[in-house]
Design a protein that fits this description.
Elements lengths: L1 E7 L2 H14 L1 E4 L2 E5 L2 H14 L6 E7 L22
Antiparallel strand pairs: 1-3, 1-4, 2-3
Length: 87
């Protein structure tokens, strides 16, 4: 499946969340990630994020799609991390 994940967490936890999300998805902008991921890996990512965040202060939001082709993406301004340069 294809997901877009965004998070908003306290300053002390931002680095840990960034490191965790980069293990599973492609970083595209501050606190925003996207990419193909299996259901098992996504569940693993969510469980790991629950160990980092404070659920009464922070949030992790996951948008799911069956495939990337079902999403239309428009970038206005500079795209921070292009995904088309992978082999």
């Amino acid at each position: 499946m294809y997901v877009i994940l965004v998070y908003d967490c306290g300053e002390k936890r931002v680095g840990k969340m960034l490191k965790l999300c980069r293990r599973y998805l492609n970083w595209i902008q501050n606190s925003v990630f996207e990419g193909e991921i299996s259901e098992v890996k996504l569940n693993e990512l969510i469980l790991q994020s629950k160990l980092i965040i404070e659920e009464d202060e922070d949030s992790v939001i996951v948008f799911r799609s069956r495939q990337e082709k079902w999403l239309e993406k428009q970038v206005v301004g500079k795209e921070r991390s292009k995904l088309d340069n992978f082999l």
